[in-house]
Amino acid sequence: MIQLVAEPAPIGIDLKRTALVIIDMQRDFLEPGGFGETLGNDVSLLKAAVEPCRQVLAAARKAGILVIHTREGHSPDMNDAPPAKVARGAPSKRIGDVGPMGRILIQGEPGHDIIPELYPIAGEPVIDKPGKGAFYATNLGLILANRGIENLLVCGVTTEVCVNTTVREGNDRGFRCIVLSDCCASYFPEFHQMGLAMIKAQGGIFGWVAGSKQLLSAMGRELAA
Ligand code: C5J
């Protein structure tokens, strides 16, 4: 059990019933030439989350916490890609088009892969999801239930899109969701701030927000005890 300094209030969490969920830290979102850039975003804004995320991932692995990675994307035949999603906006390239990292947001292509700094190791489930939320059309809920997980430590990109959607889905399913603020990022710094504010407002309407340093020091105390 660790006592975590968080907003809107401190929270005690049992690490044996906790999973670290790293959302969509894929080359398609973080590197030039991928999905994020085709939408007109400055992908360098997401870099800030990588090192805090790497530190939390290393600590979670050391502590034996279940680590789950997610990837947004679609099968090569794009049967799972809603036409309304593919047609959205005016990107320079659409989902399925060929870019410098292969077909945009398509499973098996270099751009769809997770960045090297946070690459999954054997035994860590990787959830491929066609939507923004990690519970929608995936077996994430089943994996968490089978492992007796009650708490989710959530990292990844982008704060207001896939992180927020997953937290809302998780909250409705009864999970305590703790978003690690500096382990998340957005192409829009103001959306990052508001995305976190929406989670912790109203007494934690969707969950809690804490910094990676708070988590690491609470875990350090637990491991030293
Ligand atoms: C987006 C995501 N932003 N992973 N996906 O389209 O947040």
How would you portray this structure in words?
- The mean pLDDT is 97.
- The protein contains eight helices and ten strands.
- The protein has a single domain (24-146, 160-207), classed as Rossmann fold (3-Layer(aba) Sandwich).
- The longest helix is centred in the last third of the chain and has 16 residues, at 189-204.
- The protein has helices at 27-30, 35-38, 50-63, 83-86, 140-146, 159-172, 189-204, 212-224, and strands spanning 2-4, 11-13, 18-23, 66-72, 98-99, 102-103, 126-129, 151-157, 176-185, 208-210.
- It starts with a strand and ends with a helix.
- It is α/β, with parallel strands linked by helices.
- Dicarbonimidic diamide binds at residues 24, 29, 72, 132, 157-158, 161-162.
What is the rounded distance between the termini?
A: 11 Å
Question: How much of the sequence is in beta strands?
Answer: 15-25%
> Largest sheet at a glance?
6 strands, parallel
**What is the helical fraction, as a range of percent?**
25-40%
| Helix and strand run | EEEHHHEHEEEHEHEHEH
Give average pLDDT, whole number: 97
Classified by CATH, the class is Alpha Beta
Shape: globular
Count of helix runs: 8
Q: Please give the domain count.
A: 1
CATH superfamily: Isochorismatase-like
Structural class: alpha/beta
Poorly predicted runs are none
Question: Any idea what the CATH architecture is?
Answer: 3-Layer(aba) Sandwich
CATH topology: Rossmann fold
- Number of strand segments: 10
User: Which value, in Å, is the CA radius of gyration?
Assistant: 17 Å
Spatial strand arrangement across the major sheet: 7-4-3-8-9-10
**List of distinct ligands in this structure:** dicarbonimidic diamide
